[in-house]
Design a protein that fits this description.
This protein has about 170 residues and is mainly beta. The protein is about 5% helix and about 55% strand.
Length: about 170
């Protein structure tokens, strides 16, 4: 099963059962014919449409179509996305970060952020020296620094919380 949602929050359920496509539990009886690369002619309820796939982002599962000259973007969720959402484990929650912990014991050499500062995924947040090597600790996601729990020249243990995000 797939869930297709437009930018204006129209939603359709698409399912395939025994070789038949169902759209919101009704048979999908559209006549679709390819007329070029990524371009299709569609007949539905005696009306004719030309649809072109303009872009496809498979990672984010978003697709942009031009239908009779009007651009429409849809987001698709498969059965796994829907299950994760139902369990409260959607991608939106997965990308939220709460804290950064020390990956190994060491010495804090430099803190590169301040409370209230916004950081993006991959931004350097501090430098940790471990076994005579400097390790740049980067932000695991986007967020705003809430509190720094360590000071420069402080020794830290593995898994010790270094800073908190809002």
């Amino acid at each position: 099963m797939l869930q297709v949602k437009t930018a204006d929050d129209k939603t359709w359920q698409v399912d395939i059962q025994k070789g038949t496509i169902l759209l919101n539990n009704a048979p999908f009886d559209w006549d679709i014919s390819p007329i070029g690369p990524n371009t299709y002619h569609i007949i539905k309820d005696a009306r004719s449409y030309t649809a072109e796939l303009v872009s496809a982002n498979y990672e984010e599962k978003t697709f942009t179509f031009k239908i009779n000259g009007k651009v429409q973007t849809v987001r698709v969720k498969d059965r796994f996305d829907l299950l994760l959402e139902k369990l409260g484990m959607s991608n939106a929650n997965a990308n939220k970060i709460n804290d950064v912990k020390a990956p190994m014991p060491g010495l804090i050499l430099e803190i590169k952020v301040q409370p209230g500062q916004e950081v993006k995924k991959g931004d350097p947040i501090l430098i940790l020296e471990a076994m005579k090597m400097e390790n740049i600790i980067k932000s695991p996601g986007d967020g705003t620094v809430k509190e720094i729990k360590v000071k420069e020249k402080q020794n830290v243990e593995k898994s010790q919380v270094l800073l908190l995000f809002q």
